[in-house]
Request: fold
Amino acid sequence: MTDTLRNAKPHSSPAPGRREHWSGRLAFILAATGSAVGLGNIWKFPYITGVNGGGWFVLIYLVCVVAVALPIMVAEILIGRSAQRSPVMALRKLDGPRSPWQGVGWLGVAAAFVILSYYSVVAGWTLHYSWLALSQGFAGMQPAEVEALFGQVYQDPGINLFWHGLFMLLTVAIVAAGVHGGVERWSRILMPLLFLMILALVLRAAGTDGFGPALDFVFGAHGDRLTPAGVLEALGHSFFTLSLGMGAMLTYGSYLRTRDDAVATSLAVGGLDTLISLMACMMIFPIIFVAGLAPGAGPGLVFVSLPIAFGQLPGGALWAAVFFVLLAVAALTSAISLLEVAVSHFIDWRAWSRRRAAVGIGAVIFLLGIPSALSGGTRLFGGDFAAATAVLFGEGQGKNWFDLADYLASNWMLPLGGLGIAVFVAWRMGAHAREQAFKAGSRFARLYWGWVWLLRYVVPVGVLAVFLHALGVF
Reply:
């Protein structure tokens, strides 16, 4: 393998044409932060923090972000910036036309297809709840009615298909407009809007009696509910929250210019993503505590507990509308990056026009998402499918289509993709090429050896632990 990137040539690929670039560092930070910030920050992180008792869980999560997630993010962005290609073609360019490492890129592209197919269904729930909050609010609804409402949304194929289709149309329209006219333009609109809405909700929560208890719950020195499984969950979420292992950061990195400071921008994106996760906790838990609800409600925290809590607040209808619109915006910014991975791949690989790639791939992903929209696949496949997956995965209840897609992406594709990126950069990429890529234009060149050490020894152990935990070994 060559030890320098300077003379690397594309292998066996059609000319992709002139590559678009971000207009500046801020544009990349906003777009990459939009990719990282999604339902995982505003939905999943608060509920797993609640389940694991806050406190030490949050501290462990922050350590894992620094020690595991950020090194992989830097590696992904450096590959993209160095090769100026999408995941598969980038690894082909850096390691040759017959390189087996292309498989890591293909895994990222496949993960983008699979994840977006069911992610858009969940994102459709946020659009539906935004509509409900804007049109009628949740005032006067009893807890049992709110629970029944979510059950209705989950089980109604018409609702799921409509919002799934609308969400995919929005995503396709933005990506089809290009890096400048679509992804960058909307990132400049959506990310400041998202941050302002989070800030408004945090300030609203700060005016309640639950803000003090929430501060202690999230940041206090306590870990009475933390278990070894909770530690591994913190490690796993630190990895997944930054959109790693699915080619998104690599693809966005390919739109950087070769002298852009990839390390500084990675630190900025990681810092903003973490800040928004913590702010999400501080906008949710005070409202939960004021309503006398449990912080460990699990996945129902957002779609069940919060509507109940908003229904009890003065002006709760307005704040519920702001929150669910915020959730929909966060989902959209992440979906844009997932679709961009696949679109960029077909532009580089098959020389498709951007519009053709966005529309064609968007249509395929919409079709892939239909089983998930049909009540998690139960209407389409029924008990036979669940029974078959019970045998396949050794679980009593089996998995419906929605569960299966999430299981494959989260427990197999993303860990293997992230591990592959780490091993490739740490052990396969030439030492000179790796150092040159890290230090090019960077104010943090002195961190190079620390980054390499983490990438070689800490990251593989961390990702392997997440992988084995997901498989039930621990």
Residues 1-16, 376-398 have pLDDT under 50 and may be disordered.
